[in-house]
Amino acid sequence: MSAPVARRSHLVDLTPFRSSPAFFRLWLGTGIAGVGGQMTVVAVSLHIYDLTGSTGAVALVGVVGLLPMIIAGLYGGVLADRFDRRIVAIAAESVAWVSVLCLAGLAWFHIDVLWFYYVLTTLTAVATTIVSATRMAIVPRLVDKELLPAASALGGISMGIAITVGPALAGVLVATIGIQWTYTIDAVLFLAAFTGVLTLPAIVPEGGSSTRGVRALREGLGFLRRAPNIRLGFLIDIVAMTFGMARVLYPAVGALVIGGGAITVGILFAAGATGTLLSSLLSGRLGQVRRQGLAIRNSVMAYGGFMLAFGLVLLPLGTDRSGSITDSLSTANIPALALAALALAGAGAADNVSSVFRTTMLQSAVPDSMRGRTQGIYIVVVTGGPRLGDAFVGLVVATTLLWLPSVLGGLLIVSLVGVLVRLNPSFRDYDALDPKA
């Protein structure tokens, strides 16, 4: 890999758009569909909390879908290393779209059978996992290797917009026109994902494996065993997401702690995304960072610190058991809401910087014939970690102390990540000009 051209500007590098129109179309379609997807994430949380009044029931959404999502990520990666990645993505997106349509149908017909929602959200997560793994394996075929950090940062903008606009819009829509329309709007926005993928050329893996099924999966896991830097990057992300996720707390925080109901929930979801978006917009010099392992360590430890701060904001507030998920923002503790949002924005920014370097490391150090499988494992980590985090929060919040998961989790992240990197010098010394898995 050649040395990156020095840039003076901190603003995001748009060169990948200019050099690859196909990448731009994929990015745009993914971003638009992502807004709708994040709307549904919030809508499902609010819907289940409204039906049950239980944070544990909200957390169960992630727990139920964890094992199917792991299987989908692993075998989705196998498919992406064997077949045309464009076709794999289209098939998986079709399944996810049908699942969203079914959620809308349940809501419109007032079918409040809880397990239906668990099944459909699991099916959506499974399909989305396959799409994400395949899409990430496609990107290195669309842009030059030296532009991968910039492409990752642009992906952060797409994700940041989705998880900023989507949750905020969901909070407003649920509070005004209802759950049914929120699901329906997601189904319409999802169509953009097809546009982004359908316009791609055929992308057949280079030097793809002739093995199938379990043997192909074993090949991918065998490669990961020989890739200490990639492996540690996965482990660091698992630590961060397991102990640093607070999303299942938001409905209870909006109803019982800060107040404001659905509007507050939308703001809390959007706060982290705002940090993600801002850090991506100011990512222009990230491509010049060579010590990417150290950059991952520092950004993840900062993430843990911000999550600790979020928990400390909640600590002195107590709970109001008379609160309601439909309260208006006029009932909220505005100073506490502002501080909580600021902490979550910092966490989102730190996590995004870590993600840029982890993605770049994966896409530059892994051969194309293994990208689908390693990206599949990565997506399992990225999406499975938060579900472990949901379970962690669900267990800790049984104490009824809503501040405790974030305080305890933040302390664990800072300490564990520091120790892991100290014990792995090859990760600490990783050089982007000589990428080694």
TrEMBL record:
Entries under InterPro entries matching the protein: MFS_dom, MFS_trans_sf, TM_effector
Membrane topology: Multi-pass membrane protein
The Major facilitator superfamily (MFS) profile domain, residue ranges: 185-437
Any Pfam family the entry gives: MFS_3
Sorted UniProt keywords: Cell membrane, Membrane, Transmembrane, Transmembrane helix, Transport
Gene3D superfamilies associated with the record: MFS general substrate transporter like domains (1.20.1250.20)
Subcellular location: Cell inner membrane
SUPFAM superfamilies found in the cross-reference section: MFS general substrate transporter (SSF103473)
TM helices/strands, residue ranges: 26-49, 55-75, 87-109, 115-138, 150-181, 187-208, 229-250, 256-282, 294-314, 334-357, 377-397, 403-423
PANTHER family to which the protein is assigned, alphabetical: ENTEROBACTIN EXPORTER ENTS, INTEGRAL MEMBRANE EFFLUX PROTEIN-RELATED
Protein name as annotated: MFS family permease
